[in-house]
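Session log. Operator J.P. requested a structure for one protein chain; no other inputs attached. Running the standard single-chain path with token output.
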Amino acid sequence: MGWDALAQWGEDVVRIERLAGGVANDVWSVRIGGRLAVARLGRRSDADLAWETGVLQHLDRQGLTVPVSIPTRDGRLFADGLVVMEYMAGGPPETQADWRRVADTLREVHRLTQGWPQRPGWRSSTDLLHAETGTRIDLNAMPPEGVARCRAAWARIAGRQTCVVHGNPGNPGNIRVSADGIALIDWDEAHVDVPDLDLVLPHNAAGLEGEAYDTAAQASAAWEAAVCWKDDYAVRRLAEVRAV
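Structure written below.
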């Protein structure tokens, strides 16, 4: 159905301009009922979108600032691959203090989602110690030596408590800093994993030290290499994962 699905939110909904949405989605600012919102059209399944919108509703109810879904006229949180979300005002983090607030917010996300079920079709980093594929990841496409290095990095975090991780909080474009606090946007890569993957931030804002920082940094680099393989960024990230 494509963008025709937007009519399910009302006859007065209009697209304004395309926003940065990555390769997986088409993202636009829209006006709905006289207010600014963000609409994202992609190919995610209904089960996948139900998981994402459910997580965001839960975090919103717990007092965090996240882009919750605006329902269709008949009360659905998404329709035909389209999600319409609240617009989050603010700008990217600019200071070390801003990033420390981001780290605090991420830790609250992790605390509030311990034991959450996995996103449909996804694998965690430690699942990939034995599995070969999961959503955008296909370890068979990577060099065997690179897979061995990634798995060695993930083995170091095996057995830890899991929770919902944002998936890409180190990208300043996924954070909004405003007078109201810290908002985390773009949850398209969120899934259940070990929280360390979210805590490798600019300025080491999460305050990880020594072995803890090295473990998190290696696991995070391995994850980003696998999930983005094989673009230039993924190749650079894999180069950061040490041989064992």
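Operator note: Residues 2-86 form a domain with the Phosphorylase Kinase; domain 1 fold (CATH 3.30.200.20).
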